Give the backbone structure.
Amino acid sequence: MALTGLDIYKLLPKTNCKKCGRPTCLAFAMQLAQKKASLSDCPDASDEAKKVLGAAAAPPIKLVTVGSGVKKVSVGEENVLFRHEEKFYHPTGVAVTITDNLDDAAFSDRLKKINNLKISRVGTEIEIDLVAIINKSNDAGRFAEAAKKVSTGSHLSIILSSSSVDCMKAALANCADKRPLIHGANAQNCDAMAALAKEKNCPIAVTAVTLEEFADLAEKVKKAGVDEIILDVSGSNPKEVLQKLTKVRRAALKKNFRTIGFPMITFVCDEDPYQEISLATTYLLKYAGIVAVNTCEPWAIMPLLTARTNIFTDPQKPIQVESKLYAIGDVKEDSPVLFTTNFSLTYYTVEGEVESSRIPAYILSVDTGGTSVLTAYSGDKLNDKVVAKAMTDAKVDTKVKHKKLIIPGLVAVMSGKLQETLGWEILVGPREASGLPSYLKTVWRP
């Protein structure tokens, strides 16, 4: 269980020296218990206190890193069950499977498709993270060759999935430097798999049925010297998988049951790609650290990546674009100038409609803290002075020869003050961005 303020107080010097910036040691202890202070603030803390409090302050779910370099995947170390309580920190890794029994041409084609699973969403490129190599052939040579091809032919991190120790050893010989996840450890082969993980400094995934079995296997692996463990909760029954995901997360967070305080992986295999992605998305939202799917079609992967992007953003910090002047198309001195806020969804909606009009235009993204037009206006984050500063900072008057500014129709009430402050002619645009193509074609005149 987590230490209380009084438990922590007993470990402190109790001198009330105020070196930590708090009036008393008890006040400091209470803030430590609430995670509002760091033990490093106390210069007189004993080694024993540092050891005990350091262990107690460690996240209930172990951080595990798969891969190396820029595409390494870090999962775990989450502190809450629900995002509104705080936020989620380490996005779920998305993996796509490839089997070692494919012929050379089919293997190369599938690997190429997997490598190209990148999607642009609200100005950000998102993609999958891992390739899961499945030892379907049960042949050590073929598994090793598949690992070599992925290691040299993909920028993604690797999952090696096999219950055969010999096959795993052969594959690791070709890709251990990529620090792959060793997947396939169970009650029968745990000792040998853990020895491989220890030797190659790789994380390991253990497979079991009950939480007690997971705890036993995890302890076995830890005794072998491997700390980075992932629990495989895959199964054919979605209800049981979801229950396991939830039980492990709750046990780690609410009961501080650290013996299963590890991130989880689930393989989702369904002949229906729609069902497969639906299940994968459900598991992603409900605590899976890594989800692996068979489908590698962009239309199927897109909703999975979109759900991940949405759930792993800070709900208190909206996604924003840079506040500046954007040129859409081949702009000239007589091109129209519009403004909107720097909330990503708002900006890219406006940008898309301007592009569809085929009329080159400037869009001024005004910094409103990432809020929409009406929200910003009602909170006084969008007013004539804010727009005027944005215009000045972007040097809009040097880009066009006219002095006309198109404003969102939702804030038409701003037109009078804006005209007075800027000295520009203010044109009230449509209330909805969908009306911009028609407006630019029929109303706009330089």
Observations:
- The two ends are 69 Å apart (CA to CA).
